[in-house]
Amino acid sequence: MRSARCLETGTPGAGSGPGKRSGGRHRNRAPGRLHRPEDYDQAAGAPDPFDRPSPDLAWLCHPALTGLPPQQWDALTAMLMTLHDQQRETSLDKRRGHRPRLTAPGTGRRPLLTLADRLLATVLHQRLALPQVAIAALFGVRPETINKRIRDIRQLLEQAGYTIQIGPHRLASLEDLYRLAITEGIVIPSEAKTAC
User: Would 187 be classed as within a structural domain?
Assistant: First the structure.
């Protein structure tokens, strides 16, 4: 039985959890209020843009490592972003049974790796032959995740008609990558060295 206070405030009575009388909604949410992405403050704790590398991995975008000047890197990322969005929407549309979208685009769980991070991992693997296990340690994810993301980016690169050129260096470990970066004058954040 609900107390008089609970009836006045509209909160569930004693003994009702999130799955009982509240209909599975969280207790602290106002009745009738839906979760909307615009409710979050974009300045505080906003996720990284999907077309930019994570801040601690931005040093890997150096032309000595990617083989691309910044303008070409940005153009390639933009092209892959368009292809990725089309591919994702097609996949989601098929999963929904071609019914209209009920939630706004961009909602849901944020990916561990941005598209630029995935492209960086692919370039490190294909251009410099850095092993996927080393790339996984550098990016802070599992080797299986890196393997899948490299596979996805290879498909997008194939669709775009772009081929990653093999670089002059073959790297076998993260120490080799750090040595190459230092030789090329790339500033490596101290967190990157200690994280691996």
Answer: yes
What is the CB neighbour count within 10 angstroms for residue 11? 16
Cβ pair 136, 146 in contact under 8 A: yes
Tens of each residue's pLDDT in the chain, 196 residues: 444 444 444 444 444 444 444 444 444 433 443 333 443 334 444 444 666 777 778 899 899 999 999 999 999 998 998 888 777 777 777 777 877 767 666 666 666 788 899 999 999 999 999 999 999 999 999 999 999 999 999 999 999 999 999 999 999 999 999 999 999 999 888 766 555 4
> What's the total number of domains in the chain?
1
Distance between start and end Cα atoms, the chain = 57
In a domain, 104, yes or no: no
Print the domain residue range for 93. Answer: 55-98+111-195
Whether the full predicted model's pTM is greater than 0.85, yes or no, is no
**Distance of CA 86 to CAs 62, 71, 92, Å?**
28, 23, 10
